[in-house]
Design brief:
Length: about 300
């Protein structure tokens, strides 16, 4: 089955469940020092390490079982980390599959009732033959009282985010594209051109910002689900498209509920908040996390 739900007691148990699910869907898993290796059917490679209350994901180009995730061959200099997931969890949902041959492993952890932590790894559906396309992205939240209730705070990191600027939690979503003669070239996602970044889609600075809050379509009452395109920096302040994320979309949740399944033609998509859907936000100080109506839709394949 290309999706699975369940519960887990802690990050180690969660990682073991993810590895078993991945193996059942064509991925190859193994061990590295202080973590596990995940290789997709189309050759994308990642390591995932479980901490006391974290899962850290890092792209690489090959595996060496004797080395830690940061020392793997062709390892990304960045890691993307799901934080504040000590467990036990209210539940998880995993998704696996491929779109146009690009394999993926996506998931959402319900850390507590109504509190979600999405993550995504796989390969973009590429627009050309550029080597790469591997991506790793996870929601990482900053729980300071002045930031936790602000969905636009730049200390948070969303899936394929544009605004994570300060990296206070050492979590950076990343994608690979070997542009301009570079090898094992990993780029962090944000909105600024700095010579070797990839531009994100989510939130105010993202490419989809003007479309996310558009509301439902008047002719069919459906909320649009927006594809996540990824562009990479090139010389002279230019960017080139790399591809889009398979079977994952950005969606506004103002008219949708967490975990709701929506039907688009013959397809089923399940929606989740970026972190926690709330009707109000922006209070400071606060102890209530809010990602407002920001959400993600995951293709659900039986």
């Amino acid at each position: 089955m290309a999706y699975q739900t369940g519960t887990a007691s802690d990050p180690v148990a969660l990682l073991n469940s993810l590895a078993a699910f991945a193996s059942n869907n064509g991925w190859t898993t193994g061990s590295v020092q202080s973590g596990m290796s995940f290789a997709s059917p189309d050759g994308a490679k990642f390591t995932i390490a479980a901490g006391a209350d974290t899962l850290s994901i890092r792209g690489c180009t090959d595996f060496d079982s004797s080395k830690t995730p940061d020392a793997q061959p062709g390892a990304s200099p960045f890691t993307t980390t799901l934080n504040a997931i000590a467990g036990p969890f209210a539940g998880y949902t995993f998704f696996a599959g491929a779109e146009s041959g690009a394999a993926y492993l996506h998931g959402v952890i319900e850390a507590a009732a109504g509190i979600y932590k999405p993550f995504a790894l796989g390969r973009l559906v590429k627009f050309d033959a550029t080597v790469g396309g591997e991506y790793a992205s996870a929601v990482n939240w900053y729980y300071s009282s002045y930031a936790v209730n602000d969905p636009e705070n730049a200390y948070h990191d969303y899936l394929f985010d544009s605004e994570n600027t300060y990296n206070v939690n050492q979590s950076l979503s990343h994608v690979r594209a070997d542009f301009d003669g570079k090898i094992s070239n990993w780029m962090r996602l944000r909105y600024l051109w700095e010579g070797n970044n990839a531009i994100g889609s989510a939130r105010r600075q993202g490419m989809l910002t003007s479309l996310i809050g558009i509301g439902y379509q008047r002719y069919n009452k459906l909320v649009p689900v927006l594809p996540i395109y990824v562009f990479g920096d090139r010389p002279n302040n230019l960017r080139s498209p790399i591809g889009y994320v398979p079977h994952l979309r950005i969606v506004d949740l103002q008219l949708l509920e967490p975990k709701q399944i929506i039907t688009l033609g013959s397809e089923e998509w399940q929606v989740f908040p970026a972190h926690q859907r709330t009707l109000t936000w922006g209070a400071s100080p606060s102890t209530t996390p809010s990602s407002a109506y920001y959400g993600y839709a995951f293709r659900r394949i039986a």
